[in-house]
From TrEMBL:
Keywords noted in UniProt: Membrane, Repeat, Sugar transport, Transmembrane, Transmembrane helix, Transport
Family: Belongs to the SWEET sugar transporter family.
Keyword Transmembrane helix: yes
UniProt entry tagged with the keyword Transport: yes
Protein name: Bidirectional sugar transporter SWEET
Length: 275
């Protein structure tokens, strides 16, 4: 008997596997927050990945509740994602500096009250039935695609420095698996708002792993402005080390920010990592 990928059993299996993989990716920032808790300081870590991840999970939850049918897998992982990202942000706010807390509050107001509130208000007031679901689905897909562009900066950094120091292979690998799983889940349900963005997530993931294979033995090269590099190295011998440390802290924060967006390969967000 021929197998039909659009059978409910396949969508359930892909959705369950996607939930497991996305949950593991959501836990990726735990070492970061353990470090924050231990040092009682957020140091140079940024809150942007977690703010965006929370917005993404809430947006997908809204889509799932509108969709109603075959949405339980989306509801499950994004509910978990909202809880985990909220905990991360609470911990961040506790140990962040005053300026960082203000900035994070602005992000949350902009994304989770302003942007999400506007989307809900317009779609609920102006559209009905399947049209409303389609519009929200397109919004989710477009946002996910924009999030998936985040690894481009990391890919550029790897090529420029010939080092994969800031691109951990295990995270890239599991994000790629997550993208494949959620693509198959969306495809099996003919939900192309979920499936389509994960094609891009998969592509970026494969690119990252290829670069890892090429540059895994490389040593990071510090790139300083040509006009000032000599002066900095002469007057401040440890400037290169300090700059490398700052860059690493910032990029680690971005890499660990992923958890569960629709596809999950952006290294900024977890959504279903990006479901």
């Amino acid at each position: 008997m021929a197998w039909n990928i659009h059978d409910h059993c396949f969508s359930f299996a892909f959705g369950l596997l996607g939930n497991i993989l996305s949950f593991l990716v959501y836990l990726a920032p735990l070492p970061t927050f353990y470090r924050i808790f231990k040092k009682k300081s957020t140091e140079g870590f940024q809150s942007i990945p977690y703010s965006v991840a929370l917005f993404s999970a809430m947006l997908l939850l809204y889509y799932a509740f509108l969709k109603k049918h075959n949405a339980s897998m989306l509801i499950t992982i994004n509910t978990i994602g909202c809880c985990i990202e909220s905990i991360y942000l609470i911990l961040y706010m506790i140990y962040a500096t005053k300026s960082a807390r203000i900035y994070t509050t602005k992000l949350l107001v902009f994304f989770n009250i302003g942007a999400l509130g506007l989307i809900m208000l317009v779609t609920l007031a102006s559209f009905h039935g399947s049209l409303r679901v389609s519009i929200v689905g397109w919004i989710c897909a477009i946002f996910s695609v924009s999030v998936f562009a985040a690894p481009l900066s990391i890919i550029r950094s790897v090529i420029k420095t010939k080092s994969v120091e800031y691109m951990p292979f295990p995270l890239s690998f599991f994000l790629t698996l997550s993208a494949v799983t959620w693509f198959l889940y969306g495809f099996s349900l003919r939900d192309f708002y979920i499936a389509t963005p994960n094609i891009l997530g998969f592509s970026f993931g494969v690119t990252q792993m290829i670069l890892y294979v090429i540059y895994r033995g490389g040593t990071k090269e510090l790139v300083l402005p040509e006009s000032s590099s000599k002066l900095q190295l002469e007057q401040f011998p440890d400037a290169a080390a300090q700059q490398s440390s700052v860059v690493r802290v910032q990029e680690d924060g971005m890499n660990y920010g992923v958890g569960g967006t629709i596809s999950g390969n952006s290294q900024i967000v977890p959504t279903e990592l990006n479901v």
